[in-house]
Amino acid sequence: MADILLINPKNIGALNFDSMPPLGLASIGCVLEQKGFSVKLLDLEITPENLDISAYISNCSPKVIGLSGTSMSRFESFKIANIAKKISSKINTVYGGCHATFTAEDTLSHISDIDYIVHGEGEMAFLELANFLILKEGTIETIKGISFKKEGKIIKNTSRERISNLDDLSYSRHLLEMKKYNTKLEFLNLPAISIMTSRGCPYNCNFCSASAMFGTVYTMRSAKHVVDEIEYCINNFNIKGIKFFDSTMTLEKKHVLAIAKEIKSRKITLPWECEIRVNTVDRPLLEAMKEAGCYYVNFGVESVSEKVLEAMGKNINIRQVIDTLKWCKELNIKTKVFFTFGHIKETWRDALKTIKFINEHFNDISKLAISYGIRIYPGTRLEKYARQTGLLPQSFSWSMPISTNIFSYDTIPILIQSNFGTREIEGIKEKIRWINLSRKSNFKEYFRKYRPQNIFNKLKDGKSFLDISAYALKRLLEICKVMIKILTRKRNNNLQRCLFW
Predict the structure, then answer these.
(1) φ, ψ for residue 207 (rounded to 5)?
(2) What three-state secondary structure class fits 275?
(3) What is the mean pLDDT of residues 452-459?
């Protein structure tokens, strides 16, 4: 039994990342508990596939169900709301998170099983909504930061002010089944914990919903509060590393330096990783981070075309990228660098500039992260552009299945332009593939996958000799193609000719 059941839906079709605890949902749950409500949290990312959600909800008998979720998991959230309403029409369903925030009218118009939408930070708005729905306190019209239906009309209340002191929020994870999460440090493969030290981003990249979600206000926790949480996790969960999940941890140098100093003063020696921006770091800052345990950073470059960077609002330059790669290499800090193709105003020539940069700096990058085609998320300037230019049709709804005439990945529409469409995206994929194969370690890994023994092990169970032969022949032809490319490349001694034919 519980007054409130919080549910994190499964990201069907999403990439297979390590499972990360839903810290935002846990924070909301702690706030509700502190005010006397009984709360349960169900994270469907870590529950068995055969879990009977209907039976689980029935056993909990909640008065309110709070649903989080992303754009990728939106249909799962809708499905759970439908299950809840079938159990009892008296259950109040509340939908929150980034996707819900920017699709409130769309969702409430099409999804009758969702009663309320919480915009932005959810702790205080959800608390007031719970007071109204369960304790019958206050009026629905005075709760800031929510949308709801009334007499067939959609009402959006006044926006809520941001939480100014994040130290007031609990970092307890007692509502989560922490043993079921498999968060690991990249490269080191050590068990780790996810921690956020701030909220928001003052930058406004056109494809990112983080700044739209929180505005340009950037709020930070104190270094003491952050390191208290680290010690809490060390004592309770036997962790060996930390993954800081801020949108950008280095936005305020004083903030990072204070955390680094606090970590060192408490003699905590765990390795940690975080996301940075190249225009917010210098060598002394990276050196201080390294001394406090930072072994790995990731950052977005996206494109090396100044025109494309300006159009997306990235607010970085290539000199900063080169310097950051150089400093990280000198300090032995590993790097994961994001590049994306298909931006507004990007041409094939712009994309080739980025490919050339990747090839020239490949050995300075520990891990490449490439995205082919720009995903259009609600609330972004990219979505506004796509709607204005007709790249997203007027009839497009985030609450409806994506029609076959819209190019998409994982139920997220992709920006397909006349000057950079599917043909160009496939061409970029091929070029990145050959850059990877040109490296000895990647070349060996590629052929290791297709050794005869591996092919046999993969197909022997339940496969006919004909199936195995066909698969082996297909792989053999692919290997021959790779060998021809590699030999041609060596004979010509001209990597550029191979990469940019």
Answers:
(1) -100, 0
(2) strand
(3) 55
For CA atoms 379, 382, 386, 391, the dihedral sign is negative
pLDDT of residue 158: 96
Shortest CA distance to 346 belongs to which of 284, 395, 303? 303
If phi > 0 it is left, if psi is from -120 to 50 it is alpha, else beta; for residue 332 that is: left
Q: Which of 415, 425, 398 is nearest to 406 (CA)?
A: 415
Q: Are strands 294-302 and 334-341 parallel, antiparallel or unpaired?
A: parallel
Q: Which of the residue ranges 414-418, 426-430, 467-471 would you say has the lowest mean pLDDT?
A: 467-471
CA distance 154 to 150: 6
Torsion sign, CA atoms 484, 486, 487, 489: positive
- With a cut of 60, say whether residue 16 has pLDDT above it: no
Which string of DSSP letters, residue by residue, matches 164-196? S-GGGS----TTS-GGG---B-TTT--BEEEE-
**pLDDT per residue over 151-168, tens digit each?**
989 999 999 999 999 999
CATH of 183-437, one of 3.20.20.70, 3.40.30.10, 3.40.50.2300, 1.25.40.180: 3.20.20.70
Fold of 4-156: Rossmann fold (3.40.50)
Structure confidence by residue, pLDDT tens digits, 77-130: 999 999 999 999 999 999 999 999 999 999 999 999 999 999 999 999 999 999
What whole-number distance in Å separates Cα of residue 318 and Cα of residue 337? 13
Burial class (CB in 10 A: 0-12, 13-18, 19+), 402: middle
Q: Where are the alpha helices (DSSP H) in 115-269?
A: 123-134, 210-214, 223-237, 253-265
Measured over the CA atoms of residue 357, residue 359, residue 365 and residue 368, the dihedral's sign is positive
- Decide: pTM greater than 0.85: yes
